[in-house]
Specification:
disordered N terminus; about 500 residues; seven-stranded parallel beta sheet; Rossmann fold; globular; six-stranded parallel beta sheet; 3 domains; alpha/beta; binds zinc ion
Amino acid sequence: MRFITAGNQLIPEQLAKERVREAAKHIPSPVINPHFSFSAELLSFLEGKQLLLDELPFPIELIHAHYEQGYIMYEKGITKTENGYHCQRCGNEEAHLFASFFCARCRQSCTYCRKCITMGRVSECTPLIVSRMLMENTVYKQPLHWNGTFSSGQQYAANAVVQAIDNAEQLLVWAVCGAGKTEVLFPGINRALQLGKRVCIATPRTDVVLELAPRMKRAFPNVPVIALYGGSEDRGKSAPLTIATTHQLLRFYKAFDVMIIDEVDAFPYSVEPMLQYAVEKARKETSSVIYLTATPNEQWRKEVKQGKRNAVTIPARYHGFPLPVPTFEWCGNWRKAVQKQFVPRNVLQWIKDRLFQRKPSLLFVPHIELLEKIVLILKRIDRNIEGVHAEDAERKEKIAAFRNGDIPLLVTTTILERGVTVPNIDVAVLGAEDRIFTEGALVQIAGRVGRSAQFPNGDVRFFHYGKTKEMLAAKQHIERMNHEAAKRGLLKTT
Ligand SMILES: [Zn+2]
């Protein structure tokens, strides 16, 4: 049995936890005692968070004393609803995502949430702990140190972001791939920090957190910036500027005045109500939400069209050249070809042309099994050709080698549809008719090409065995953006 210190006596840990659980049943908490000598360390650790007992690195007696003196609250982790249960941390209400077990702690059958279990078990007898203290916010006079310039499309959107932050409104920034959307946030974040507001940039993917954090640190050098993701060293810290995966938001509670959601359409945020719940829980009641995406879903586009959703578009890239428009090319029954150890003649020609011109290129294919077969076939013409997919242990190394030019052509699944920026590349899709290639995915894939100002053009080729609606919609999407950019005078006229 473990013992912990409580004042100058030792009590069994089990007993102390018992007291916490007992107290969790009595809500509301006691009134705040102003004479209590509270632990600033504990309160600052808990600020804006909603944590399990096990996530707090403090003696349980100290935690409980803060409860008794009214400084923190205990909330039930799992509550009963009319039809079943509700998980207070992740919002889960699906019956099959709850399980019951005989709990050694509460000595009866106890229900827990399976949905958010990777972040520690929330069960009926587990309280979630929240601070009742208001956070002290630092005001920064001139936090932004950046001397870049905006394209007129960026400037327009940046102003809209500032306005949304001033008015605590929601705003969708619909910016084409390569519009320079990160910079568009700078003036808004600057304003928020000047007003002592807390800002969070949340994104579904860890890669993006790792890429954004150093950029934000450079732009706001005197402001503490933390990066939160599974296994991050900043865990437990809080800062005026937080960059986090949407999963990490589950640990926050009414913490942010400004919530920026990057790649709002990207898996898994778009299909996962848990993450939307996390966003709602992590932001303050009065706060602004800025959504960023190049490919909003149909529902959102409809709302924008009907004027129901506040939105601003950046239809042009920062360098002012139009988006490369994909061309479609029929390639016959390519699956059958791959089974017979070859790739269709026109696809092979496209690849050979790129190898000959020494132009780096990406070839997107629908599935991992196909990818492996295709890589083997292509290695016959150049053994440096490689393939990469989500479960690939050497993913990072291969992408780096592709950037360096050591891999001339990289065969990939949709894992590289976002985030990879390599100058002067061409892109092809083999089997563009496959269900996995949605309009959004195809627009993102095309968006890899022509991003750098030195090489604003490039080839985007969709090889197919029958055109799909999604392919046509993707092409129209790109053409519409180019048209809007031209109409608004955002394209270079030379
Ligand atoms: Zn849960």
